[in-house]
Amino acid sequence: MTGEDPGPLIRLFGLTGGRARPRGETFDLVAIVTTVGGSHAPADLIPEHHTVLSVCRRPTPVADVAAHLKLPLNITRVILSDLRREGLVTIERPRPAAQTIDERIYREVLHGLRSL
């Protein structure tokens, strides 16, 4: 043995159990992750799982979760899919912008523009 540090790949391999793809339905960078209320985290979770559960108490995009964990996106997706499978988080696609803005707001903006 050379005593050299094998690098981060061994750690990443351990975090995901060697998996490079998430299980179940796919999700993208802007999907929203939220901790399921009232769920109790099992004691055998890794620290990254606990961090995700803490960060996602408020709805958080997948990209922000990856940045907070300081892990590659594919590793973050595997971790999130594991938590989803355990029923500890939900991962939802964001609503299209047309559904998030009330028609009343469009009218107010249009009225404001016309008054200029």
Would you write up a description of this structure?
It is a single chain. The protein has 116 residues and is mostly helical. The chain has helices at residues 8-16, 47-55, 62-69, 73-85, 97-100, 103-115, and strands spanning 32-35, 60-61, 89-92. It has a 3-stranded antiparallel beta sheet. Helix 3 crosses helix 4. The termini are far apart. The relative contact order is 0.18. The model has no long low-confidence stretch (mean pLDDT 81).
Primary descriptors:
single chain; 116 residues; mainly alpha; 3 strands; 9% strand
Could you give a quick summary of the protein structure above?
The chain is mainly alpha-helical.
The SSE string, one letter per element, is: HEHEHHEHH
User: What is the average of the pLDDT values?
Assistant: 81
What spatial order of strands do you see in the largest sheet?
A: 2-1-3
Radius of gyration: 19 Å
In percent, how helical is the residue content? 40-55%
